[in-house]
Design a protein that fits this description.
The complex is a heterodimer of chains A (about 180) and B (about 350). By secondary structure, chain A is α+β, with helices and mostly antiparallel strands. Chain A has six helices and five strands, in the order H-H-E-H-E-E-H-E-E-H-H. Among the domains of chain B are: about 100 residues, Ubiquitin-like (UB roll), CATH 3.10.20.740; about 120 residues, Alpha-Beta Plaits, CATH 3.30.70. Chain B contains eight helices and 14 strands. In chain B, a hairpin with a 2-residue loop joins strand 12 and strand 13. Chain B is extended.
């Protein structure tokens, strides 16, 4: 065997245009063989599902939209320490800190809080590093199936505190559940 | 006088301390210092972070010193041999000292403005334990207002006395000091009298922790999101050489320039520090460099990026000639005989 005839990939196939016999030219056997494959697949388990009526189960490590958590007393946990923005590989997070006044003690847990907290959802890659970096357990990536709502305006994808902070009703419900347990 | 620190020898002047000799050598064997400040007379000897083992006292008296010595206040002797990072005892002592310093520290780094340039943070990162064993209630103080420029957080203070010495040596008539004793010792002003002196702002730079911070910069920005620039201006009170901490075109903070040991190179006056926040007031020299592992370098794309060039032989990415022929490429057409073979087939 010379080097010219060896197949390097192992997939080389010689093509030929040899004359067919009469039996072969009727194609009956070939058609039957092909149909057998089709019929066999009719009785196999389906690999597709009827989305959106059905949905696949989420992976245990699924990461959906972010949420800024509240503590048991309904106060915001975030202190605008900037570690989420520092760890963010896509540089999607920006924030501005402000000092808590004595009247706002029921709203924020620490003396500093984030007056502006924005995540650019077009930049975010949902890697979850912000959640990992947070020293105050303030930011979490939820199991929400809706990651980002579609829109035609780029401005709509910059999520501020109005969209990110946990709703107060949810915090109340969580505390009630905890007290019940 | 010859002194050997971690196996590295150096000739120094008589009267040099071990810490100064170690800093002349540089590198890993420099002990950390929380209270010692080379620009302040009489500083040092309080925090015990810089403890080293003296394994040979001197040429005349070669016995080792029985206890660990504070390197910032111990003078070198001829022929002295010192173990800093190479000694197990020293590392153990540093770990314990760090734990002691953190006992009453509130650990509120996410809130603290000093985070990112804090000596205590660096110390506990390098020498501290990951977890605290302290379960008792931490000592706290009532918040106190000490003037319009400086914010005092007494809870964070480690009582290094640096600010007291700054006030003593830089200004005439200091108005703040350490009150009470023992566990109750605290930095305070005489009946909350506002600190009002041309050079009082240097206490902010001198403070190794976040106990004294800039009130005009309070909660404005984390230090690693600022862009630090060297800048200067004509000032009749001080040298005018500063570091500007910019965010966009806005000057958010002005500090003195700090060297590798986070010590101020030259003290600056309050006018430069607090009253000139307009970029037009300053001549900007260029970006300020920080040590390689500083968080301040994060997200500043100041390093020049060179395009990657693959240095190979010519045509190596195309493959060897015989291989190219095999994978019948367009460039190597089949000859007449090969064509005939293909047409007929080999069945």
């Amino acid at each position: 065997m010379s080097i010219e005839t060896v197949s390097l990939s192992g997939r080389k196939k010689e093509v030929s245009n040899k004359k067919m016999t009469f039996a072969e030219s009727l194609y009956l056997v070939a058609i039957f063989k092909g149909l057998m494959i089709t019929i066999k697949h009719l009785f196999k388990k389906k690999v597709t599902i009827r989305y959106p009526e059905q949905a696949r189960p989420l992976s245990p490590v699924y990461r959906g939209q972010h949420m800024l958590m509240r503590d048991e007393e309904g106060r915001e946990r975030c202190t605008a320490c900037g570690l989420c923005a520092l760890s963010c590989p896509a540089e999607a997070i920006t924030m501005k800190a402000a000092e808590r006044t004595p009247e706002e003690k029921h709203l924020y847990r620490e003396e500093k809080y984030a007056s502006i907290y924005e995540i650019n959802m077009l930049r975010c890659i949902f890697c979850g590093l912000c959640e990992e970096a947070c020293p105050k357990q303030a930011i979490y990536l939820t199991k929400s199936r809706v990651m980002v709502k579609p829109s035609s305006d780029r401005e709509d994808f910059i999520y501020g505190k109005d969209k990110l902070v946990m709703p107060l009703e949810m915090a109340i419900k969580n505390t009630q559940n905890q007290a019940a347990n | 006088m010859k002194v050997t620190i971690d196996g590295q020898s150096i000739e120094v002047e008589p009267g040099t301390t071990i810490l100064q000799a170690a800093r002349m050598i540089g590198g890993e064997s420099v002990p950390p210092a929380m209270c010692y400040y080379s620009k302040l007379k009489g500083s040092g000897g309080k925090c015990r972070c810089c403890l080293v083992e003296v394994s040979k006292g001197s040429e005349a008296d070669p016995r080792p010193m029985p206890k660990l010595m504070a390197s910032c206040v111990t003078g070198v002797m001829d022929g002295m041999e010192v173990k800093s990072i190479s000694s197990e005892r020293v590392l153990d002592a540093r770990k314990s000292v760090t734990e002691f310093l953190l006992i009453n520290h509130p650990l509120d780094c996410p809130v603290c403005d000093q985070a990112g340039e804090c000596d205590l943070q660096n110390l506990s990162f390098k020498h501290g334990a990951a977890k605290t064993r302290f379960i008792e209630e931490k000592r706290t103080f009532e918040p106190e207002n000490i003037g319009p420029y400086i914010q005092l957080h007494m809870n964070r203070c480690i009582l290094c006395y640096r600010c007291v010495m700054t006030a003593d040596q830089l200004t005439d008539g200091r108005v703040h000091g350490v009150m009470n004793r023992g566990d109750h010792a605290q930095i305070s002003t005489y009946i909350s009298k506002a600190i009002d002196n041309e050079f009082s702002g240097n206490m902010i730079d001198v403070c190794p922790v976040g106990a004294l911070t800039d009130k005009t910069f309070r909660f404005k920005q984390r230090v690693w999101f600022n862009k630090p620039y060297n800048a200067h201006r004509d000032c009749d009170k001080c040298c005018g050489k500063t570091t500007l901490w910019m965010f966009g075109d806005e000057i958010q903070r002005v500090t003195a320039r700090k060297d590798v040991y986070h010590e101020v190179e030259e003290f600056i006056c309050n006018e430069c520090r607090f009253e000139h926040k307009d970029p037009a007031d300053w001549v900007i020299e260029g970006p300020r460099k920080f040590e390689k592992d500083s968080v301040i370098n994060q997200n500043n794309y100041t390093r020049e990026l060179k395009p990657v060039k693959i240095e190979t032989e010519k045509n190596i990415l195309l493959g060897r000639d015989i291989d190219r022929k095999k994978i019948s490429m367009k460039d190597v057409p089949l000859d007449a005989e090969e064509m005939k073979e293909l047409k007929e087939g080999n069945v």
